[in-house]
Amino acid sequence: MFPGQRVCKTVVSGEPLANYKRVVAAVRRITSPAPDGFGISQRNVVVSTVGLAPAIRKLADEDLSVTLAVSLHAPDDELRDTLVPVNNRWSLSEVLDAAQYYADKSGRRVSIEYALIRDVNDQPWRADMLGQKLHKALGSLVHVNLIPLNPTPGSEWDASPKPVEREFVRRVIAQGVTCTVRDTRGREIASACGQLAAEG
User: Fold this and answer.
1) What is the CATH number of the domain that holds 86?
2) pLDDT score, position 200
3) Where is the Radical SAM core domain (predicted)?
């Protein structure tokens, strides 16, 4: 990097915690002081996962200060089994228990990623359930990051209407959980979240 420049985001394909040793090594490298590393604060690093519960617990024991982001996308096992197939191996309760362990060990707030899909996971009762389960498991150490679904060629799914999105946020907050909507960027050039797929 040149003076005045900074790394904004590194996005790769695949589940980070399925490549555990290399991901942890990369985190330690980029957070090491220069010249060995980039000198980036661990508190500015996010490690995402779909919910590999044992690996989340292992990461907690590394005594790092990175933010854990869990791609949840549903507050109930019935739907999450469909949206996130790894849920068939580690249930929602196991994932939340591991996230709670991480929050307790690190003192860091866990980010819950939730792509809002029209008529799939955007029902008011699911918002209530999400807020209740997260508040019970994590208390104040959680933040829900709602992601408006970006259009993808060939997908049958669509983004929830704005009024539905606003009501979902309101209901999650009503359960005592911080909830915001991600600012969508890059949609016009098909490079927003969930759009990094080749066409043709």
Assistant:
1) 3.20.20.70
2) 47
3) 1-188
